[in-house]
User: Fold this.
Amino acid sequence: MRPVAVIGAGCTTFGEKWNTSFRNLFVEAGMLALEDANLSGEQIDAMYVGNMSAGRFVEQEHIGALIADYSGLASHHIPSTRVEAACASGGLSFRQAVIAVASGMEDIVVAAGVEKMTDVATGASVDTLAGAADREWEGFAGATFPGLYAMIATNYTHRYGLTREQLAQVAVKNHFNGARNPIAQFQQEITIDTVMKSSLVADPLRLFDCSPITDGAAAVIVAPLDRAREFTDTPIKVIASAQASDTIALHDRRDISTLDATVAAGKRAFEMAKLTHKDIDMVEVHDCFTIAELCAIEDLGFCPKGQAGKLTAEGVTALDGDLPVNTSGGLKACGHPVGATGIKQVFEIVQQLRGEAGRRQIDGARIGMTHNVGGTGATVAVHILEV
Amino acid sequence: MSVARFWRKIPQRYNLVGTQCTTCGSYFFPPRTFCPECRRAGVIVEHRFKGTGEVVTHTVVRSASEQFEQMTPYVLAIVQLDEGPRVTGQVVCAPEEVKIGMRVKPVFRRISTDGESGVIYYGTKYIPDE
Assistant:
């Protein structure tokens, strides 16, 4: 395998983008990434596009070809492939691009993610997202996505004595970071009181424990490391790419409060990068709900099980803490266009490692990690990047 | 859910018919035709579950998809059946009544409806059993 680097990255602003179409969202992100890498379209060898459910959100399938076409590349006939793994679609499209370049099969590859979620009503989007779990045996019984994560939270709280305030602190911290991110859907700081007084969605999760419905797209360009300096002065090396799966239904898991796929993918990533937890300067984890961020920190091995709530309350995961988590604002404040999230996480780490993260910059950042979850943990992708 | 997909699962949904691997003794509900432990060596037979069990975790769903909107708030739980497997289902009780460790037993109930004049889906819910 040959070493791979990210040579360009672009991201749209995240939010309710009613004036922008699905295809234009992607084109905007793709153009930003190409400009960033000083590339022209005809230099692209292949594309991978992460997308969860355009078929239900905008009633469009065949996304790979659509994206290649509206990127102005139809006449180049490049291979363009849609990658789907629910909310981990972006993370997996990045991994596919990395594998394609590492194998020597392709040189310049675009990894992108896109989702347009606000063109349907809330009930329809709740139902579409429930498809990331087991439709026949979870969705049939009335399980919603917040409902499933709420059951993780109930089980976790019962076993580890998590307080409601510690859980709320995850959202407070991520909104603080989002307020420092110009692409974030929510750029307002909030207090614990904001979370505690918001409406209940699925007990104990309240509205401010949940990531929003979002439109957005992100794209990064990967290339062989030995060619990276043709395009950029600051290539970002991909030093680990790991993926793992688990049961589709939460009720079949070995442990309701542990995402074993995160444990497995995290372990593989650390082995591949030959690093320990102390080497990681910051991590973008999949906080689709506040409880998910706590599970992620623990399951990746940054602290023992049951301790992440306490660490969050103590500020360890804040921008100025020992382990900054979700400097972008996370899914919670930056927004969660499901298929785009995994690529946005890479975009954030690339910005941090280049020292371009502005008011949320982590001083001296050298190594960053991304963690992208599909469903309630049936698919997980973990990547480690180094400047 | 389409009518055909629902129809195929009626024995399982109405009578909690799952499967057992007689090679290793594991029980499966929802039914599996392939034992994750024994794999091709596993011999799978049907098994009708008693349906009694214990709440492992729970929530109260207050914001639901269109099909379940009119039922909110409803109690959703993961129930560990006495034979071992776990299943996601609704518990028919007041939101403040549900607890981890609570014993439950199965009841035959309407689960949801496909719109105003669509198919009515029946299946198993759970009620407190203590």
Observations:
- Residues 269 and 275 of chain A are 9 Å apart (CA to CA).
- Chain A has a mean pLDDT of 97.
